[in-house]
């Protein structure tokens, strides 16, 4: 009888530890998105939302309009 209670207690502790570890893992904030600057107006935006003009690889823009206009000339 004592072994059964000890086994049940061990299972409960194990379940508690696993649930605690999973909860702590889900609370981690997601990694921040990499920001890029629009070559025309300079606004910062996530790389996933940036546009690039055809033939202008590596240069990022915030909108299709700014990609069409190209980089701002000083």
Strand content: 5-15%
Helix and strand sequence: HEEH
The count of helical stretches stands at 2
Q: What is the average of the pLDDT values?
A: 89
Q: What is the first-to-last residue Cα distance?
A: 85 Å
Radius of gyration from the CA trace?
Answer: 26 Å
**How many runs of DSSP E, i.e. beta strands?**
2
Low-confidence stretches: none
State the assembly state of the protein chains.
single chain
- Lateral strand order in the biggest sheet: 1-2
Helix content: 40-55%
Q: Characterize the main sheet.
A: 2 strands, antiparallel
3D structure, described in words:
The chain is mostly helical and 74 residues long. The chain has two helices and two strands. Strands 1-2 form a two-stranded antiparallel sheet. Strand 1 and strand 2 form a beta hairpin. The protein is rod-shaped.
List the helices and strands and how they pair.
Elements lengths: L1 H25 L8 E3 L6 E3 L17 H6 L5
Structure at a glance:
The protein has 74 residues and is mainly α.
Structural key phrases:
single chain; 2 helices; 74 residues; mainly alpha
